[in-house]
Amino acid sequence: MDLLDTFFNVPILIRTFPMLMSGLWITIQIGATSIIAGLVLGLFLSLIRLYAAKPLVFIARIYIDIFRSIPLLVLLIVVYYALPFVGIRLSPFFSAVVALTLVSGAYTAEIFRAGIEAIPSGQFEASRALGLSYRHMMVDVVLPQAVKIVIPPLTNNCINVMKDTALASVVAMPDLLKQATQAQALAANPSPLIGAALIYLAFLWPLVALVSRFERHMGQRGAR
Amino acid sequence: MSSFIEIRNLNKHYGAFAALTDIDLDIAEGEVVCVIGPSGSGKSTLIRCINLLESFSKESTILVDKIPVEPGKHLAQVRAEVGMVFQSFNLFPHMTVLRNIMLAPLRVRGLSEAKAEKKARELLDRVGIGEQAEKYPGQLSGGQQQRVAIARALAMEPRVLLFDEPTSALDPEMVGEVLDVMRDLAGTGVTMIVVTHEMGFARQVADRVIFMNGGKIVETGKPEVIFDAPKEPRTRDFLSAVLNH
């Protein structure tokens, strides 16, 4: 069974499994940090985009458009390889987190904006008529309703960020993909790459299934 | 007559369209005023100016209990004194009926949870739906939702209540229960301004009826005068159209 030995060599998989696991841990760290930072940045940007003074709105729009247009790989390489020329030297980990956060923040901002805009104007009017402050209106009335609307697209975005962490391997970050390629080189066998692919799948498939469930659920609720 | 709400020279434009033109109006404390008129006549816009849900031109002034209605730090004070009930209820769908009523007293008046809840339950009993406290707005009928909305406005102990066509979105069989609650309120001394198409209610409950058309106040007077002996031809046309359909 040459094929099995080449692509699914169990002894090699067992030997390189610790490497892959340490890579997965780094992938999770990069992904989780970027997702959380991206959420904060996105919420902040969406509120500016919706409610700030005109010039700030303009800046937020430009930001969102730029970072939704630029390929993540290009951004990552600029952050890691170009910024040192102006004295900004970020570690591979922070380069990856910064690039992922900048892009994720732009997408998240648009998701939040759509969610907030989907709240009927009557909710804002009732809040204001009751004398609620802007902060209480957002925290108690608008955002809890918007969050329900944005959970499916937000989860989708999280999946994308998680997948995009694989790009960190190009800046020498020992994430899951990088560990797998190194293990492949050491073992002179591609089984670790297959192993890595399976780990990505095992990790992200449930999330994808979750989004589908959210969407079905929302569809049913929307139909009532 | 000391006027509790004082509206002077109120103008509002949407671009070139004049939504309100030179409105002068004084309303005494405890007075119940019904505003009638065809749709698009500016009735809703008028009452929405009183709590600044609509902005108006700079030369206009509105005073509520001597406090100017304008953006800035007085606005929260005005809005705390002025309650509003909307045509489409605008309850908060993600909160129980009880939390809907408690929210503003907790956040704006700074009441304790216990006090806010006690008051909310009293108000729900008063509008006749005490047993619905733990439900969500979506589980209630339109009439019940509007009664919750009235209780929510009352929870702030406002001195003025604005009603913006409160029964227009209701199924006919539910109009009565909401009007009953409003009729009870009218007897409590709270100032009420009611935009409505319910002429029977206006005639029976209002101290004064205002007829608006084309963004202007055309005629104002006691209900028996407006309904039985209107002076202006436009008022007569409108009333004969709505009363004889």
Detailed description of the structure:
The complex is a heterodimer of chains A (224) and B (245). With 224 residues, chain A is mainly alpha-helical. Helices cover 83% and strands 0% of the residues of chain A. Chain A has one domain (3-223): MetI-like fold (Orthogonal Bundle), CATH 1.10.3720.10. In chain A, helix 2 runs antiparallel to helix 8, helix 3 packs across helix 5 and helix 6 (121-129) packs antiparallel against helix 7. The longest helix of chain A has 42 residues, at 10-51. Chain A is flat and about 75 Å long. The mean pLDDT of chain A is 91. Chain B is α/β, with parallel strands linked by helices. Helices cover 38% and strands 24% of the residues of chain B. Chain B has a six-stranded mixed β-sheet with strand order 6-7-8-3-9-10, with helices on both faces. The longest helix of chain B has 15 residues, at 172-186. Chain B is globular, with a radius of gyration of 18 Å. In chain B, 47% of the residues are buried. The interface between A and B is medium-sized, with 17 and 24 residues.
Can you lay out the helices and strands and say which pair or pack?
The complex is a heterodimer of chains A (224) and B (245).
Chain A: H1 2-7, H2 10-51, H3 54-69, H4 72-82, H5 92-117, H6 121-129, H7 134-164, H8 176-187, H9 191-223
Helix pairs in contact in A: 2-3, 2-5, 2-7, 2-8, 2-9, 3-5, 4-5, 5-7, 6-7, 7-9, 8-9
Chain B: E1 5-14, E2 17-27, E3 32-36, H1 43-50, E4 61-64, E5 67-68, H2 73-81, E6 82-85, H3 97-107, H4 113-126, H5 142-154, E7 160-164, H6 172-186, E8 191-195, H7 199-205, E9 208-213, E10 216-221, H8 223-228, H9 233-243
Parallel strand pairs in B: 3-8, 3-9, 6-7, 7-8
Antiparallel strand pairs in B: 1-2, 1-4, 4-5, 9-10
Helix pairs in contact in B: 3-4, 3-5, 4-5, 5-6
